[in-house]
Description:
With 525 residues, this protein is an alpha/beta fold. 41% of the residues lie in helices and 18% in strands. It contains 19 helices and 18 strands. Strands 1, 2, 9, 10, 11, 12 and 18 form a 7-stranded mixed sheet that branches. Helix 1 (13-24) runs parallel beside helix 10, helix 5 (116-138) crosses helix 9 and helix 8 (182-192) packs across helix 9 (205-218). The protein is globular, with a radius of gyration of 22 Å. It starts with a strand and ends with a helix. Bound molecules: flavin-adenine dinucleotide. Residues 9-15, 32-35, 40-42, 57-61, 63, 250-251, 281-282, 314, 316, 388, 435, 439-442, 447-449, 480-481, 487-489 line the site of flavin-adenine dinucleotide.
Amino acid sequence: xxxxxxxxxxxxxxxxxxxxxxxxxxxxxxxxxxxxxxxxxxxxxxxxxxxxxxxxxxxxxxxxxxxxxxxxxxxxxxxxxxxxxxxxxxxxxxxxxxxxxxxxxxxxxxxxxxxxxxxxxxxxxxxxxxxxxxxxxxxxxxxxxxxxxxxxxxxxxxxxxxxxxxxxxxxxxxxxxxxxxxxxxxxxxxxxxxxxxxxxxxxxxxxxxxxxxxxxxxxxxxxxxxxxxxxxxxxxxxxxxxxxxxxxxxxxxxxxxxxxxxxxxxxxxxxxxxxxxxxxxxxxxxxxxxxxxxxxxxxxxxxxxxxxxxxxxxxxxxxxxxxxxxxxxxxxxxxxxxxxxxxxxxxxxxxxxxxxxxxxxxxxxxxxxxxxxxxxxxxxxxxxxxxxxxxxxxxxxxxxxxxxxxxxxxxxxxxxxxxxxxxxxxxxxxxxxxxxxxxxxxxxxxxxxxxxxxxxxxxxxxxxxxxxxxxxxxxxxxxxxxxxxxxxxxxxxxxxxxxxxxxxxxxxxxxxxxxxxxxxxxxxx
Length: 525
Ligand SMILES: Cc1cc2nc3c(=O)[nH]c(=O)nc-3n(C[C@H](O)[C@H](O)[C@H](O)COP(=O)(O)OP(=O)(O)OC[C@H]3O[C@@H](n4cnc5c(N)ncnc54)[C@H](O)[C@@H]3O)c2cc1C
């Protein structure tokens, strides 16, 4: 039986971040990956037409760029930016654009209402006051004691209370409080809809604020050469420290002895022993219900897992476009990301269809112009384009339903960029099932490892508990987007899990650490 100090299940970026941190601490690390490729939802490939590189899943990385854990790894990456960060195209033809140059963004927002330019500056100043400490608070283990105290000390009670209120607002309410015109409100709301939250959902405002203001502060950068560069950098860093990734090794079981994780069994029946820790970069239901099994878990924990909520399904289309996009409003031409298909009420209608398990007749699209962001994606004068939209979370979708919906998506793009269809020279469609085939963690096409709703965040992620990577099984840690702080490429769940594994393993304090976790778990479950 092969053995290592740590086994990491899944070579997604979170698994690879965790593996790197453990290797840095001198541990021997083995990563077992189900598919033939590393990276999970951080990969690139040539799937549309020769010469057109597509980022198969994620592609813009403001969170990764700002993430303390990713930065500490000092990955060998060159970052680049589209001229504009993002543009929201309204059905009436107007455009709200965020640019890293504050004055340019202000001028765009000012078109929608007198004073909204200054209001944007004000919102950005507010963000700058708390941004570093907020990111420290969000992207570190829960409870965020040190970073949280630093933030609290800076804000004092009265500002702290107002920040707490802001964190609970829906994006529609937040937009109304901050701005007068629809442009700036939509800039936030479109960002919130990168998650599965509607414009009316409590706690949605903070996502819009975070993504839009991060865009203002540091852009939405991409690595030169595509998403794959992040994965390749993580894998080479790990291998340089003696770590190893084994491909086509889907883990089926966690081997548990006397309440302690001691190894894993792969689907082929091979057993692998872990002497110090097992870190799982897989969704929480897969880890607990499939791999561990209910026998080893407190009944209350199992019941809570039955309330775990996925985020919605996703359909993603990549296109090879033989010219630059023929946008009706040229303001979209320089944007890395374009939000299109809905104004604020349209976003609400789109979300209402999803909530009532209906296919949205007018889909809202997130669209990426990858060659505009990074010219290495396709030949000069062309565009490597993608768009994705959400569908309700269902057991299955027929090919005809998907094709029909792709038709609706292409119809939306055509409305905003007449002639687009004639320029398409290659296309790749990932249905929810295709996404899950490529990365088994994208269950039913869910891209966030579970809903971003407030009831599944912080100490409620993935289920009510400590919000920590520790599990009821000793030396088993949840390291995926299902753990706090959730989806996105920032490496925090992987980093948190690695730190917890190191804390558990410490000679003098490790047993005390585990005793505290056990006591808390007994109280909760
Ligand atoms: C279409 C799409 C667009 C997105 N856009 C962005 C974006 O622009 N920016 C951003 O920051 N985020 C984006 N995201 C979200 C982001 O990509 C994910 O939140 C993030 O990649 C999750 O990382 P992870 O390591 O937790 O999981 P994953 O990346 O899903 O990796 C999990 C890994 O575990 C493997 N695995 C699963 N089961 C097993 C098993 N039984 N045994 C062994 N291995 C297993 C999988 O094959 C996979 O390699 C997007 C996601 C999608 C799908």
